[in-house]
Amino acid sequence: MPLRKALLVRVQFVCHTCQATFHTTDWATLMNGGIDESADILSNYINFTIETNSASKEVWLNHNNKPWLTKDIKNEIKQRWLAKSQVNDKDHYKAINKSVNDLIASAKAEYKAKTLDKMSSNIKSAWDGIKSMSHLNKRTAEISSTVSRKELPTLADDLNKFYLRFEHPRPTPTPVGDSYIEDDVSGLPLFSINEVYAALKRCKPRKASGPDGVPAKIINACAYELAEPLQQIFNRCLQAGYIPTSWKHAELIPVPKKPQPSCLNDYRPIALTPIIMKCFEHVIKRRLTDMLKLDEYQYAYKKGRSTKDACLAMDYTVRKHLEKPNSYARVLFIDFSSAFNTILPPS
After folding, report:
1. Which of 149, 69, 138 shows the shortest CA–CA distance to 107?
2. What is the pLDDT of residue 254?
3. Quick check: 19 and 50 in contact, CB under 8 A?
C-alpha cells in the first residue's frame, strides 16, 4: 500500500526566487566579519533563502517501482486503493481493478518488446540487458542488512576510531582579522569572478550536499548571483592562507565493499564535503595545474589520462624491450594500503 508523507518540494520556481533574492542582497554588509564568520553567514543565508521559498507538499511514496511502471498506472493504482476503501461500491472497485491489470499487462509487454529489441542490436546492449534483469549492476550490500539495529551505534564508534587511526593533533591557527600567515602573499594573483562563476556552474545539480546543507542545484542555478560574494571569500582565504573551519567538515558515509562485510576495512569511507569547498578546491586545482609540471608518465589525476593509457604504455615498453635478443621483462606492482592517510604533512 502506498504511503503519504509530507516532503519539502523544491520546484523550479524556487531557483528563480532565490536568484531574485540573491541579486538584491547587500553582500558587503552581510559579510563584513572574519573569514569563518563570513563563510558561516553565507551558508546559513543560502539555506534560509531556500527554506523561505520552498513549499511542503504531501506526496505518494510507492515502493519497489518497476521499469514498466508508468505515471498512468500509478494513478490507476491510487484510484484502485481509494475505491477499495469504499466498501459499499464493489462494482466500481472491480472495474478499476480490471483496468489496472490491463494497463500492467500492456506495459509489461511493451517493456519486454523494447528490451528484446535493444538486446538484439549489439553485444553490449545484450549484456546490459542481462545485468539489468538479473540485478547484477545493483549493490546488494547494505549496512542495515548486515548489522542489527542494536549494533549500529557500536559500529559507528568503531568506524570513527578506524578512520581516525592516522590522525595526529596539529596546532590550530589563531585568527586575527584576516591575517593567518606571516609570508608575503601580496604577489599572489587573485581569483577573477569568471573563474569563480565557472567553478559554480560546473557543479552537478544532483550532487549530494555536505554538512552545511547547501544544495548543489542552487549553487549551479544561482552561480551568477553567488559568484561575487564567493569571489570575495575565496580571495580572502587565498591572501590569508586559511580555510574556514566549517568548510573542512565532512560527513563520512561507510559503503560496504562486498555483500557481507567481515571487518572494518570492508567499509569504504565516502566523504561528503560542502559544495562551496568543492568549488574552492576546483579553482585552486586549476591554478596548481598551471604552475606544476607533472611527469609525462603520470596517469593519475591528469585530465585525459586513465589506467588504460598506463597499461598501453607499459605494454608498448615491454614489447619494445622484448624485441632485443635474449631479453626478458619483470614487472613489479605495488599497492600501498591507505597511502594518502599515512602521509603526514609538515606541521
Report:
1. 69
2. 87
3. no
